[in-house]
Structures are given as C-alpha cells and as structure tokens.
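Worked Example 4.2. Consider the chain below.
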Amino acid sequence: MGRRGQAGLPVDDGLARRRAQDARAGHRAALQRQPWRACPGVLHVDRRQDARFRRRLVPEGVPGLMSVSQVDTAVGPAAGERLPCSPFVLGEWVSPGTGASSFVVENPADGSPVASVAAAGQSDVERALCSADEAAAVWAGTGGWDRAQVLRAVAAVLRGWAIDAGRVLSREQGKPLAQAVWEIEASADQFDWYADEARRIYGRVVPAKDAGHRIQVVREPVGVVAAFSSWNFPALLAARKLAPALAAGCPVVICPPPEAPLSTMLLAEACRRAGLPAGVLAVLPGDPAELSEPVLRSPVVRKVTLTGSVPVGRILLGVAAAGIKSTSMELGGHAPVLVFDDVDVRAVAAMCVAGKFRNAGQVCASPSRFFVQRGALEEFTDEFVRQTERLRLGDGLDSASDVGPLINERRVAATEELIADAVGKGATVLTGGGIDPGLGRTFFKPTVLGAATSEMKVMTDEPFAPVAPIIPFDTVDDALREANAVPFGLASYVFTNRMDRATAAAEGLQAGMVGVNTLALATAEAPFGGVKESGFGREGGAEGIEDYLVSKYINTVPAL
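Applying the procedure from the previous section yields the following structure tokens:
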C-alpha cells in the first residue's frame, strides 16, 4: 500500500509534493501582494482579474464591493454572476468532478429549491487539510496588524452586501428579512471586533526567582481549526468562529450546515475578496456526519469548535478526545426568565414576546421558560397572549412578517410533540397550538401555554420552537430552584426594578450569561457561552480569541 495523507487517505508522493510547493508559492505571493494595504479597512480588488464581478459596486466610491444580487444563488435567471455553490479550497471555488454528489437547499417557507450545492468529496477534504497545514506557519507568521487589515476588509465587504446577503439568508433559513439583514451586519461586527483583537495578543515577562533567568510567556495560534456551525444563524455562528480564529493566526476548515450553507459560502467569498491568502480558509459543504470523521481524525487539526446540539457535541468531543485536540462547545440552552412583580408588566411582556418568537423560537439563547411572580401573573399572561396574537406569521421575504417558518417538518413534529405532552399533563393552550394551514406545513403559530409544570418536556427539554410556557413563583429562592433544575446553563434573564432582587437572581442563576432587564446578550464585544451541558469556551469579547491561542513558556539564561 502507498503512503497515506493527513486525512488518512492514500496519496501520491509526487502529487503531494507538487501541491505543497504550489501552496507555499501561492501563500508567499498573496502575502507579497497584500492588497489590503492599499486602503486600510476597504476592499481593494484587482479589476483586471475581477472584471466579471464589476457590474455593480456598492456602496458608491468603494472599489470592488460586489452586490450579492450579482452572485444570486437562486434557481432560475440571475441578475449577473452566480456564487459557485461548491467546496472552497485553496482560495478557489472547486468545480465538481464527474459523478460528484450534490444536495438541494430548500426554502423552508414553501419547499422550493434555492440552490443545488456540490458536496465535498474525499479529495476536497484531503486538499483542504493539506493546504491548511501548509498555510498554518505562513498565516501565523503574518503580523497581527496585517491580519487585522484583512479582517477589517471582510467586515467592509459584508456591510456592503448586507441587504442582498440578507435575502439569501432569509431564503435558505426562513427568518424575516429584517432579522436576516441584522445577522449579516452582526457577522460584520465579529470581523471588525477581532480585527482589533488581532493586534492585542499580549504575552508577558515574569520576574524570575533565580538571578540571570529571563522568563517569557508568549501567545501562539493553536493551529488548524475544524469548525462546525448550525443552521439557525448560518452567517453569525460561522463568523463567531472564523473571525477569532483568523485573528489568532489559525487556518480554518469549516463544515457549514447542509440546511443553510449559502451564508457560510458568502463569508468565504468575502474573505477571498478581502485578500485572505489561499489555504487559510476552506469550506466543505455536505453531510457533517460524513465529513466530520476524516476532518476530526486528521492530525493536522488541533482545535475543534462546534455550535450545535448536546448530542452532537458529545459525539464530536469523543472523537476529539481520541486525538487530544482542544475543543470549545456552544451547545443547547433552555433560558429561564424571572419576572418580578415590581416591573412595568405590560412593557416586559411585550419585550418577552418579541424575544421569544424571534427566528420562530429557533435560538439557543431564546427566553423559553417564563417564571412570573404570582402578583403579576394574570396581567403578564393576558398581555403576553395579546402581544403574541398580534404577531404576523409569513414568508421571511414579506416585509409584513414578524415570524417565519420553522426550518423543516422535523421541527414541526418536535414542536407538536412538546405541546401534546404538555396538554396531556395539564397545560392549557392559551393561543396558537398548531400550524397555519393557509400558509404551509412549516408555519407554526406562536404558542403560549398556561398552567405549565416542571414535569412537562417543554420545561426540561430544549424546545427550539415557538412555544412559551408560563409558570408562577412566589420567592426568589423558588424561582432559582426551578430555573436551575435543568442540565442547561447558557442564558438567563431577570426583570426587576429592585437591585437586591437583581443581584440575588443574577448571582444565583447557573448560566454563562444573564440579562437584567434586557434580552440583548449577543454582541461582538461580550463573551457568549454557557456552563453545564450548554458547553464551554466563549465566543465574542476579548475572551473569544483565547480559545484559539496557546501559551508558550520560555526560560532564557545567559550562554554558558
């Protein structure tokens, strides 16, 4: 048998050497060109090479920013060039070979095809890993200021594409367009934030006990990163991994969610246009169950990061443990909301409705268990139901829609099961409770449950659904006991006007994040992550880059 490559696949030695030589030459050439230097923070494109994309430039006066309408991924006539829906390896969109498999991305609203995507094959996986391995030393050796310029350029590209990219995101994932545009802009924020963090990777000098010794601690990139993200925020969740990893100096091989891979592809195209050297980023679309095995078992990969469910997290952790690989996991959540009787009940109820049914409840940090102090229970419930019934269910591209469809019929079935279990155990459906047959099989009416109890699945299992159970409580201790009774610990929320209650609740909640009188937790400048079965590691803030760095201790003494 011949030699086996980094991914455990047979390779030709001569071919491998030629690939390595080509990759090194490409990296050096890309770094020598450094197109981002021409205009810091603004994408600068060689128009001779990219003339086919110059039909529309946005915003005015910024050279080379391409409207996503020019790379429309929809099936049917396109306004211009189309974004290739295929693996992205060595800085190029790979043309699918003969017999290559593909899959269709469907619009959750009506099941219509959005795009046909070529799935990554074994050769794509091997090339992605080999090129990332080659790129690791080059990208790590690129100065933090230069990496920052690339990331800033990526942010500029994304902001220029925000509306059109939001349309692509809405079509593949289903969320209302306003929420999709916000997600693209929030993704740009991630690259903007980590552009600054790339320049602030500090080491330290430690005073030594022994005279003549000089102790240094330096921070270095962990190495090649394997990233897996989820479909509910297909752009933002990928950006939360790409931005800090690239800022730290790590190449990334990312497997996007097959339900909504196009947004990750748009991020890759933005990186390409920003001047990211070939090999530093690879996108491998396809079945994550098939792709994860060769990627995770490759000795090239030194870091694994996932946003996904707890069961998937357990599987990836097991594989990563076999290779002693660093991991960070952002897993499930079941966020409690503690509403005390001293608040403006109607205002809080309205805020909670907007937060709960955002993205049809398919949010890991979604407020999903509403504990209301008994004195405010009736008023809160009435207003919560009234505000819920005002929400308009509809296609994400309809500007009048407040709530879009669930991602697929599996989520519909899971939601129906939660409600049936709750009703069977004594809960009351106060509004909603099923699909809207006039809209389609994936449009589930926002649902409110009264008389919920802790024995119901909707109180113990992560719902990921437009279902809101309301439960009374009497004291802070009662609320904390119920809130902490689940294995999740991602987000929690407290509404009160009393500082003593706010402090007691915030300190007593077992969660990685607590919002006091707000549901706004996801922001680039703050660390996002959980405790218990919700995972470990942080994304965002100064903490987010730490998961992609390792500390090296150097003790130097004078020459003997």
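The chain has two domains: 70-331+540-551, 335-523. The longest strand covers residues 214-221. Compare this with Example 4.1 before moving on.
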